[in-house]
Every structure is written in C-alpha cells, then in structure tokens.
Amino acid sequence: QVQLVESGGGVVQPGGSLRLSCAASGLTFSYSDMGWYRQAPGKGRELVAHISANGLTSNYADSVKGRFTISRDDAKNMVYLQMNSLKPEDTAVYYCHAPRTGHWGQGTQVTVSS
Question: CA of 102: how far to CAs of 6, 76, 89, 95, 98, in Å?
Fold first, then answer.
C-alpha cells in the first residue's frame, strides 16, 4: 500500500531553517506529482508547495515564495521541503501529499518560536 512518511520537523527560532523529508513507497513515484501542505491550529489545511512528476515545475503559496524550496529525488523516492527564514506564522503540522493517489502522510510538527 501507499505510505508517505515525513520527518525533519522540530522547534526552531525565527529566521532559522529546517529541511523536511518525505519517504514514499507503494506508488510509482517518478510518475507522481507531490505536494507539501500545512495546517496551523484552528485553521484549514493549505498548500505550501507542489512539484511536478518530472521535477521541472514547482509552485508555492505566496506566503512562502522565496523562502521555501521543494525538491525531489526519484532514485530515493523522496521529496523535500527546504524552509529558510522561518517565521512564527509558519508554525503548523506539515503533511506530504500524493495527489494522484490521494494519500497523505501522518504529518510532522514545525514550531517557530523564540
């Protein structure tokens, strides 16, 4: 079955960086667009970044443009989210998503606080 497992969350000070990883299994990864979403307390889940199956196209939420970078390694079935210049408003649970199959990971908590 399809499994998406996130890692790399944690507590970081404002201005700091984190790199989230998502390990995918059970799907034809190289054919799959992938996305990162987040959900802050009391808010709905929102798209943070999306990368096409061929890795040539990526899209970002306006709130993270210029600070976050999504990437993928098809040899390892991994997708990453490099997050720089983190702000307190980036605090949320971050989820990996495979749109083609509709599967979600369990989420990883990111807390930005001084």
Answer: 16, 21, 27, 12, 6
Paired sense of beta strands 78-83 and 18-25, if any: antiparallel
Query: What pLDDT was estimated at residue 52?
Result: 97
What would the pLDDT profile of 53-74 be if each residue is shown by its tens digit?
Answer: 999 999 999 999 999 999 999 9
Q: How far apart are CA 14 and CA 80, in angstroms?
A: 20
Q: 3-class DSSP state for residue 10? A: strand
Angstrom distance (rounded) from CA 74 to CA 82:
17
